């Protein structure tokens, strides 16, 4: 049996400290996957098709990428306004698609149920809430904005968001284990209650029935490695080079965070990248511990899937620290003589 590398040692320490039940890591580049490691507590064996709650990685899977495809086809303008799709208050009617995708709409997050009462009223409740700040002045991470963006895509396409995900992303890429509303036994539980296996952890996505623009997608390490390879190849299967370059531009300079059209961009403030990713690297993460990032220069990708929300109580800072540490462990391994395994 070979010795564990720095990645595997760190993941075993995390499992021993009950930070997660299951974890899958994949590393690769535009040519394909170069390294994979799966770990679990033996209650559910992690395999290539085990489903994880992707949490906010949903935002790039089922909202940002379809929006970019529609824009490439001339069916969606990033300058289109919320008022073109909904009856809005004066402060909201001029919020643009670009604002929604870059988290500069001025809308926030928080539970919708107390305002909406029933799922059918969720979007109207979001539209009725006051803005936290004027649009285009600062980045405020907004799950509400992505819920609205999901509804806009549904209106453009004339179909539900789970069908949009299939048509524009999973079917073209042969991602056969990526979906909303999963069923079966090979699903990692991200919730406290064992009876809630397969239910999305995010409260707003759960409130609206599990299909939402902010969260709700489940996926496997096989599929997310396919998706990450697509991103490492500039989405060349689905987007023009011009559109992809637009997607990973920084539209929020001086606004507190660096954001592309759906993508989180690594800058000097983004500690979760660790020592692994250079400035301008791109990807997204989810509060369950999931993430996918691509190194802008060498195009190496890293996918991490976990269920930390089931095991880690309290602050999301623990998840952020885990993300930084796993990236640093990968960087340490790459800096060794075994670097050739990845590149």
The Rg value, from CA coordinates, equals: 19 Å
- How many domains comprise the coordinates? 1
Mean pLDDT: 94
What is the helix content?
A: 25-40%
The H-level CATH homologous superfamily, spelled out, is DD-peptidase/beta-lactamase superfamily
Given the C-alpha coordinates, what overall shape results?
globular
Kindly report the spatial arrangement of strands forming the biggest sheet. Answer: 2-1-9-8-7-6
- The SSE string, one letter per element, is HEEEHHHHHHEHEHHEEEEHH
What is the straight-line distance between the termini? 24 Å
| Proportion of residues in β-strands | 5-15%
Name given to the CATH architecture: 3-Layer(aba) Sandwich
Biggest sheet statistics: 6 strands, antiparallel
Number of strands: 9
Describe this structure in words.
- The protein is an alpha+beta fold and 343 residues long.
- The protein has one domain (6-341): DD-peptidase/beta-lactamase superfamily (Beta-lactamase).
- 34% of the residues lie in helices and 12% in strands.
- It has twelve helices and nine strands.
- A six-stranded antiparallel sheet has the order 2-1-9-8-7-6, sandwiched between helices. A three-stranded antiparallel sheet has the order 3-5-4.
- The two termini are 24 Å apart.
- The mean pLDDT is 94.
């Amino acid at each position: 049996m070979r010795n564990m590398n720095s990645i595997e040692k760190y993941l075993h320490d995390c499992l021993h400290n009950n930070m997660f039940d299951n974890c899958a890591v994949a590393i690769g580049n535009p040519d394909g996957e170069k390294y994979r490691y799966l770990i679990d507590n033996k209650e559910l064996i992690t395999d290539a098709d085990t489903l994880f709650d992707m949490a906010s990685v949903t935002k790039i899977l089922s909202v940002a990428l379809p929006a970019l495809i529609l824009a490439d086809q001339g069916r969606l303008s990033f300058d289109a306004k919320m008022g073109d799709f909904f009856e809005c208050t004066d402060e909201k009617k001029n919020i643009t698609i670009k604002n929604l995708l870059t988290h500069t709409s001025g809308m926030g997050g928080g539970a919708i149920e107390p305002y909406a009462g029933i799922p059918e009223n969720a979007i109207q409740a979001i539209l009725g809430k006051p803005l936290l700040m004027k649009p285009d002045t600062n980045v405020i991470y907004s799950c509400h904005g992505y819920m609205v963006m999901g509804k806009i895509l549904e209106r453009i396409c004339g179909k539900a968001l789970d069908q949009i995900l299939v048509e524009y992303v999973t079917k073209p890429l042969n991602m056969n284990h990526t979906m909303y509303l999963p069923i079966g036994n090979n699903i990692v539980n991200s919730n406290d209650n064992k009876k809630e296996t397969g239910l999305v952890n995010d409260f707003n996505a759960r409130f609206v029935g599990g299909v939402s623009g902010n969260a709700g997608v489940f996926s496997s390490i096989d599929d997310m490695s396919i998706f990450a390879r697509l991103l490492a190849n500039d989405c060349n299967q689905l987007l023009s080079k011009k559109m992809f370059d637009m997607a990973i531009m920084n539209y929020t300079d001086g606004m507190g965070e660096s954001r592309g059209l759906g993508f989180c961009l690594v800058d000097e403030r983004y500690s979760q990248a660790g020592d692994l990713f250079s400035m301008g690297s791109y990807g997204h993460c989810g509060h369950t511990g999931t993430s996918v990032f691509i190194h802008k220069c060498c195009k190496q990708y890293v996918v991490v899937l976990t269920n930390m929300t089931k095991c880690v109580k309290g602050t999301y800072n623990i998840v952020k620290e885990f993300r930084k540490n796993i990236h640093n462990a990968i960087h340490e391994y790459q800096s060794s003589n075994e670097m050739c395994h990845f590149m």
